[in-house]
């Protein structure tokens, strides 16, 4: 009897083999055969891992050369016009990455994860037709290895819902066409074996969905489930509950529902309905988004709870979502602290967890090895609960006794004093923090990490960079200078390395988009700040100029949203600890004479919940922690924040509640449009709109920037505005940066004198 189920497996390769070969292929160093060779190896390896772990339902078509949504677009033949006529060998990657004459398709975040998918582009006359053999090919490939897979497909409604409409027509007008293609595909699939499971992922239903869209569900799955009697259809959702959809799906002829019981606790509310129907429930209890070892006892208890309503013979145990969002394996983490390592489980380790939990839950006979692993799980979890490296009384006490949760003075009073103190003009000029990360800077960091140079040599290099960076900004006449961030390779990692409670892995890469991976820091324990993290560098920069130097910190919400966060205490508690650490850094900076301090919240918007019912809480949490992180700032210390967004319409009240003295935002590509919401809502604090796009090497002309500034001051009084680039300059090259910033300063001069 088959009892456990993995929604999908990561594909980039545990040594990032797919990344390497793709990048070599794009650089024309290897041909496509090599890409296919590596890909096939990876698929086989991943299937074999799952088979060896005794997983009953292993996926095919979870592999992709770039992205599964892009694969779906190819499968459905919905090729945007500008790519039509391209040779098959060029089509796929040109859609993903563009070429000299064609812009790439847009990419956006997959729900609230850090994975990005390629957004389909639809219009009224988009044609759909079955256009790829990938699904069939990969099924056969696994079968040759003796592995009968279940086939992963993107559900038709989720596909359409996540598509862009380029002519503003209704994407759902295409539902019948997409259904037809899927029917044709299911007919082909039905010929492959006696019985086949096909999973349609419909995570869109984990959001708040309009009735109109919900009403598409029943006809769609009635039809698909009736194509062939030997196909069993699973509909999966994840990242939240999908109760509205589940209520409908139980009345369709599908075989099973796969639901997330880690991030969608409310899925429990439909257990009754599922029990009354004939549906099988694939209960996602193994966390597919985080890296902590499961607590077997708790997982079994949860499953027992579920089985009080849905009988065991209709239960299968699953991952909460695809394992795409976790790294591969702990086996490369040789140098990771043992104690911390013993509380982790990456994709491979999660397979074993799934197997063991299902054996226990279904009363299968345990081997001696199994018993030892289960015992170890108990011990490790107990150790984790008791560890004094994880749980620190001093930190917890300090949090409990926190008195000053926000600044004491109102903005109106603060800004008066600050303007007097700093004495800056309307349209003051500044930058967002980082300057070009040069090959020399990277080399310097690498050498230092490898112990090839001394600390002194390392620091001297950084000082040289700061000297040049400050001298340049001084010379061109910027008003507020920065040190350039040469000591940081990443705005979260830098702080994580200096804070207690964080560890860094060697190989815990997670795919972000295409061939790109990120290696998030791991927050394992109570966070505290052993010593000042930025003060020396900023002080050094300040000693080189008479102008104001702005200190640079990363905010608590961003640090949290870009890390793997411990799951043994509430996220809100972890954030508070980080906020307190930043708070102390703010205090140290101001005491060292640095009175303008920027606390970046680049990832503020990224953690927004999928369900409206949770938004209030999220916003309160985010705002409270930002306010706490700067509550140490005195009246004449000016707090800046920066957010990489160009749409504030939905969150303007939250921005207002953060109450930063100055907020810098991304506006360059949207002219003055996005400033309007600040005007409409009578936003009082100062705003620093970016006037040129730093994502491209193009140097904007003075004239262009003059026009941009003029457009801005049509909306808001110039006394409320600062002028700066859109974001940090670390990905740019010095010559571009120099010319662009000179032009920026010149543009401001012209506007002031006109
Ligand atoms: N201070 C950071 C920098 O300039 C901000 C980056 C960001 O918000 N993404 O690089
Ligand atoms: Zn930014």
From TrEMBL:
Cofactor requirements of the protein: Zn(2+)
Domain of life: Bacteria
Function per UniProt: Catalyzes the transfer of a methyl group from 5-methyltetrahydrofolate to homocysteine resulting in methionine formation.
Keyword Methyltransferase listed: yes
Keyword Iron-sulfur: no
Organism ancestry: Bacteria, Pseudomonadati, Campylobacterota, Epsilonproteobacteria, Campylobacterales
Coiled-coil intervals, chain numbering: none
Known pathway: Amino-acid biosynthesis; L-methionine biosynthesis via de novo pathway; L-methionine from L-homocysteine (MetE route): step 1/1
Cofactor binding summary note: Binds 1 zinc ion per subunit.
This protein's name: 5-methyltetrahydropteroyltriglutamate--homocysteine methyltransferase
Pfam families: Meth_synt_1 (PF08267), Meth_synt_2 (PF01717)
Domain called Cobalamin-independent methionine synthase MetE C-terminal/archaeal: residue spans: 427-749
Binding site for L-methionine: 432-434, 485, 600
Catalytic activity: 5-methyltetrahydropteroyltri-L-glutamate + L-homocysteine = tetrahydropteroyltri-L-glutamate + L-methionine
Active site, renumbered: 695
UniProt family annotation: Belongs to the vitamin-B12 independent methionine synthase family.
Annotated residues for binding of L-homocysteine: 432-434, 485, 600
Gene Ontology molecular function: 5-methyltetrahydropteroyltriglutamate-homocysteine S-methyltransferase activity
Classification via CDD domains: CIMS_C_terminal_like, CIMS_N_terminal_like
Domain Cobalamin-independent methionine synthase MetE N-terminal: 4-309
């Amino acid at each position: 009897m088959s009892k456990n189920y993995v929604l999908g497996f990561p594909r980039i390769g545990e040594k990032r083999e797919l990344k390497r070969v793709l990048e070599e292929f794009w650089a024309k160093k290897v041909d496509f055969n090599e890409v296919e060779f590596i890909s096939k190896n990876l698929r086989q390896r991943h299937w074999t891992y799952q088979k060896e772990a005794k997983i009953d339902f292993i996926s095919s078509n979870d592999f992709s050369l770039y992205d599964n949504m892009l694969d779906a677009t190819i499968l459905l033949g919905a090729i945007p016009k500008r790519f039509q006529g391209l040779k098959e060998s060029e089509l796929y990657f040109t859609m993903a990455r563009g070429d000299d004459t064609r812009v790439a398709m847009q990419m956006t975040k997959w729900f609230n994860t850090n994975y990005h998918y390629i957004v389909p582009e639809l219009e009224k006359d988009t044609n759909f037709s079955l256009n790829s053999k990938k699904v069939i090919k990969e099924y056969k490939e696994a079968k040759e290895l003796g592995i009968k897979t279940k086939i992963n497909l993107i559900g038709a409604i989720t596909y359409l819902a996540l598509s862009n409409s380029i002519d503003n027509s209704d994407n759902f007008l295409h539902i019948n066409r997409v259904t037809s293609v899927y029917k044709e595909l299911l007919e082909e699939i039905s010929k492959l074996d006696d019985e086949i499971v096909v999973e349609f992922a419909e995570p869109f239903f984990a959001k708040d969905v309009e009735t109109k869209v919900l009403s598409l569900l029943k006809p769609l799955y009635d039809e698909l489930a009736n194509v062939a009697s030997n196909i069993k259809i699973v509909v999966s959702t994840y990242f939240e509950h999908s109760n509205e959809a589940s209520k409908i799906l139980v009345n369709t002829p599908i075989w099973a529902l796969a639901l997330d019981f880690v991030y969608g606790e409310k899925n429990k509310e439909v257990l009754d309905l599922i029990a009354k129907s004939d549906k099988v429930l694939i209960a996602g209890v193994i966390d597919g988004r985080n890296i902590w070892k499961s607590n077997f006892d708790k997982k079994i208890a949860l499953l027992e709870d579920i089985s009080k309503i849905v009988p065991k013979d209709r239960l299968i145990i699953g991952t909460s979502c695809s394992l795409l969002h976790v790294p591969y394996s702990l086996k490369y983490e040789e140098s990771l602290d043992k104690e911390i390592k013993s509380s982790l489980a990456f994709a491979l380790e999660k397979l074993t967890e799934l197997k063991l939990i299902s054996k226990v839950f279904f009363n299968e006979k345990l081997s001696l090895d199994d018993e030892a692993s289960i015992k170890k799980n108990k011990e490790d979890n107990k150790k984790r609960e008791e560890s004094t490296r994880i749980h620190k009384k001093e930190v917890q006490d300090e949090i409990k006794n926190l008195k000053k949760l926000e600044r004491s003075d109102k903005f109106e009073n603060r800004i008066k004093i600050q303007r007097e103190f700093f004495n800056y003009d309307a349209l003051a000029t500044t930058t967002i923090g980082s300057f070009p990360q040069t090959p020399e800077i990277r080399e310097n960091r690498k050498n230092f990490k490898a112990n090839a140079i001394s600390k002194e040599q390392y620091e001297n290099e950084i000082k040289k960079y700061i000297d040049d960076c400050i001298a340049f900004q001084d010379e061109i006449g910027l008003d507020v200078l920065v040190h350039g961030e040469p000591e940081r390779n990443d705005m979260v990692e830098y702080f994580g390395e200096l804070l207690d409670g964080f560890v860094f892995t060697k190989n815990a890469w997670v795919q972000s988009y295409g061939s790109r991976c990120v290696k998030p820091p791991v927050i394992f324990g109570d966070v505290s700040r052993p010593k000042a993290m930025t003060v020396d560098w900023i002080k050094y920069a300040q000693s080189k100029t008479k102008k104001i130097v702005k200190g640079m910190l990363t905010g608590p919400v961003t640090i949290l949203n870009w890390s793997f966060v411990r799951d043994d205490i509430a996220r809100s508690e972890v954030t508070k600890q980080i906020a307190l650490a930043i708070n102390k850094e703010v205090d140290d900076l101001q005491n060292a004479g640095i009175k303008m301090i920027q606390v970046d919240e680049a990832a503020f918007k990224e953690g927004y919940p999928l369900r409206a019912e949770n938004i209030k809480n999220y916003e309160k949490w985010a705002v409270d922690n930002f306010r706490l992180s700067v509550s140490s700032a005195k009246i004449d210390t000016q707090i800046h924040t920066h957010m990489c967004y160009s749409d504030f319409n939905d969150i303007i009240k939250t921005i207002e509640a953060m109450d930063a003295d100055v907020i810098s935002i991304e506006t360059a590509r949207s002219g003055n449009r996005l400033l309007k919401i600040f005007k409409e809502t009578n936003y009082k604090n100062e705003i620093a709109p970016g006037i040129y796009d730093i994502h491209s090497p193009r140097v904007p002309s003075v004239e262009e920037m003059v026009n941009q500034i003029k457009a801005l001051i049509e909306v808001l009084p110039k006394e409320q505005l600062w002028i700066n680039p859109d974001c940090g300059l670390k990905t740019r090259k010095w010559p571009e940066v120099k010319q662009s910033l000179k032009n920026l300063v010149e543009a401001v001069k012209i506007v002031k004198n006109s």
